[in-house]
Amino acid sequence: MLCGNRQDAEDAVQDAFLAALENWGRVSGYDQPNAWVSLVMRRKLWRALRLRLRAKRAALDVAVPSQALPDETAQARRVLTAMAALPPRQRMVLVMYSLYAMTHQEIADDLNIAASTARVNLHKGRANLRRMLGLGPDTDPLRDVLLLAVGDRPPKERLAAALDATESWLCSAFEAEEQAPSQARTDLAGRHRRGTGRR
């Protein structure tokens, strides 16, 4: 959700963990080493986005989680498509603020921009995303787009609820992908045992 490109995201995560391994003597002494890894990952993504301003955005290709309802999948894909259409800085700031619960100053420090620039990009990103999802002030969101409820969020936080639901959907999809090779090996072994008569 930070960059709109799965390959770039995987590369940044891998690079961040590699950096943690190379600097483990120092990183292991931090109160939250995972926060350091997350910071390195976001900075790597930000640098990559700035260097590739004219590159085409690749589609996010993930399997549908087995337990996801059709409405959840449709909503997640709609949100992801809209997120990918946002300018890179707006997308980064929006995700960092809405999903990472970072302050404007923390975002500014991460991206090496002014806090006022972070606020402006958050405002524009939210406005653009609301418009793309049909949540503008001149529309009836209950009629124009289905946004599934998440927890007890009030209606004014429907955009944040959509982002939360999409993040959960993505996590489930990636988890299902990680389990797929193991499940395939188990199924294959079971077929082999049945074929040879072994139990």
Under CATH at level 1, the class of the largest domain stands as: Mainly Alpha
Q: How would you describe the shape?
A: flat
Q: Name the CATH homologous superfamily of the largest domain.
A: Winged helix-like DNA-binding domain superfamily/Winged helix DNA-binding domain
Strand proportion: under 5%
Task: Please name the CATH architecture of the largest domain.
Answer: Orthogonal Bundle
Number of domains: 2
Give the oligomeric state of the chains in this entry, treating copies of one chain as homo and distinct chains as hetero. Answer: single chain
Low-confidence stretches: 54-59, 138-156
Average pLDDT metric: 77
**What share of residues is helical?**
55-70%
* Structure summary, number of beta strands: 0
Q: Which series of helices and strands comes N to C? A: HHHHHHHHH
Q: Strand pairing plus helix content: what structural class?
A: mainly alpha
How many helices? The count is 9
Distance between the termini: 45 Å
CATH fold type of the largest domain: Arc Repressor Mutant, subunit A
Rg value: 20 Å
Organism: Streptomyces achromogenes
Protein name: RNA polymerase sigma factor (Sigma-70 family)
Family: Belongs to the sigma-70 factor family. ECF subfamily.
Region (Disordered): 176-199
